[in-house]
Here is the input.
Amino acid sequence: MTEQPSYTIIQKQGNFEVRKYAPYIKAEVDIVESSYRDAIYKGFRILADFIFGNNIKTEKIDMTSPVQVSQSEKIAMTTPVTISGEGTYTVAFIMPSKFTLENLPKPKNPAIRFTEVESQTMASFNFSGFYRQNRVEKAKKELQRWIEEKSIASMGEFIIAGYDPPWVPWFLAQNEVMIPIKDGV
Here is the structure.
C-alpha cells in the first residue's frame, strides 16, 4: 500500500468529506502548460526522476499518493488574472513521513523545492476518470456548491489529487478536488 498523508475524517456525505490533515512535506515544481493533464505528466516526470534517485545522495524515495496539482494563473509577478491558453500549475509529490527537511535528499534539479504543509482542514470531493480539464472544472464546481450549502469558508486554491498510476483504466482512476477551509466545521 502506498503511503498517503495522515488525516481524520470530520464529516462525510457521499463523495464529499471534511478532513483534518496532519503536517507533511511535499516536493513540488511549477509547470507552464495548457491543461491539468499536460501539467501532471510533465511535473510527474520531473518529480519521479528526483525520487527514483536523481538527487545528491542518489537515494531512492518511496512513491506516495496522491500526486497533487494546483493552478495559479499569473501575469507580471503576483497579480492573479485569468489567461486563456497556458497557465502555471504546481505539481507536487507528498514525501514519505519518515523524512524531515533536514534529511530529505537534495534534488539535482533546481526547479524542485520542498514545502512544509502545516496541519490543515480540507474539504474534498472524490471523482473518477483521467485529469481532463472539463472533469476537473466540474468537480471544482461540485465541491464549491457543497461547501457553500454547508456554509463552509474556503481559505485557498483548489488542489487536484490523483491516486492512481497512469496505466490504471480511466474508469477506475480515483481523483479528488480539495480546498483548504477554516477549522470549526
About this structure: The CA atoms of residues 148 and 154 lie 9 Å apart. Residues 7-181 form a domain with the Multidrug-efflux Transporter 1 Regulator Bmrr; Chain A fold (CATH 3.20.80.10).
